[in-house]
Amino acid sequence: MTSSLLRLRNRIASEKGATMVEYGLMVALIAVVVVLAVGPLGTAISGMFAGIAGSI
Predict the structure, then answer these.
(1) Phi, psi of 18, deg, nearest 5
(2) Number of domains composing the chain
(3) In which residue ranges of the chain is pLDDT below 50?
């Protein structure tokens, strides 16, 4: 291999860990999942409390 290809291969191999962009994408995905889960959960809890209040 030429020296430039060796340097490129060594540079790619030496980069470890997640970049800030990857962390940002993970946080955004988690936020979307939380928002999608909280909506129906809030509606279910509200209905449950309305049912309890109606039976009292």
Answers:
(1) -85, 145
(2) 1
(3) none
